[in-house]
Amino acid sequence: MQEVVQGRKVKPAHCYGTLDLQMAFCCPIPPFFAKEIALVCGVHAGVVEKNIPGTNITGLARIGLTCEQWTCILMRYRIYTAENLQDETVDEYRMYDHLDRWLELNPEFKRAIFKAKIVCKEGLAPLMPLQICMFKQYIQCLRNYLKLDCPPAIMVKTKICQKQKEFYDECREFFY
Q1: Could you tell me which residues come within 8 angstroms of residue 66 by beta carbon, excluding any fewer than 6 positions away?
Q2: 156-168: buried (b, 16+ CB within 10 Å) or exposed (e) per residue?
Q3: pTM of the predicted model, to two decimals?
Q4: pLDDT per residue over 45-93, tens digit each?
Q5: What are the φ and ψ backbone dihedral angles of 8, each rounded to 5 degrees?
Q6: How would you write the chain as a 3-class SS string?
Q7: pLDDT of the chain along its 176 residues, tens only?
Q8: 114: which residues sit within 8 A by CB, 6+ positions away?
């Protein structure tokens, strides 16, 4: 029986997992934004190269973007436009249009991204419309959900990745 405290299920010890299990690179998710644009916007630090042969994945993991870098990237993709300069928010419709274009390049993620958009919008609803500096949370939410619901054709076929899939299948409710 699942332990409940203040109306919420308590995460069982086995659902904390291990760092190597959670950090295993098992679902190569293509970047949402081109590395060339990120570089033009000053994103240099925290770039880790991971080449995935036979995919359209740039293999770059970007961390530590500043609000200015997000502003630059989002303006170049016209997700943050002159209309919302005053309140410094992300244009939600253009953000979803961008994800739809990303999905055209990565159709194997169709089911997962559909669910991820719903889960992340619900989870960040109190913050909508998103401020530029909060956009990272939305991207992280999408990536985390896609990692939980990685398409079988994309999932890396190793023992650790099979263990990771089983772990997330069993403990998914504690991650979203």
Answers
A1: 42
A2: beeeebebbbebb
A3: 0.78
A4: 554 555 555 555 544 454 668 888 888 999 899 887 666 566 678 888 8
A5: -120, 140
A6: CCCEECCEECCCHHHCCCHHHHHCCCCCCCCCCCHHHHHHCCCCCCCEECCCCCCCCCCEECCCCCHHHHHHHHHHCCCCCHHHCCCCECCHHHHHHHHHHHHHHCHHHHHHHHHHHHHHHHHCHHHCCCEHHHHHHHHHHHHHHHHHCCCCCCCCCCHHHHHHHHHHHHHHHHCC
A7: 566 556 677 888 888 888 888 888 899 999 999 989 989 998 875 545 555 555 555 444 546 688 888 889 998 998 876 665 666 788 888 999 999 999 999 999 999 999 999 989 888 888 888 888 888 889 889 998 999 999 999 999 999 999 999 999 999 888 77
A8: none
Distance of CA 26 to the CA centre of its chain: 14
Residue 116 burial (CB < 10 Å; 0-12/13-18/19+)? buried
How long, in residues, is the chain? 176
Distance CA 32, CA 30 (A): 7
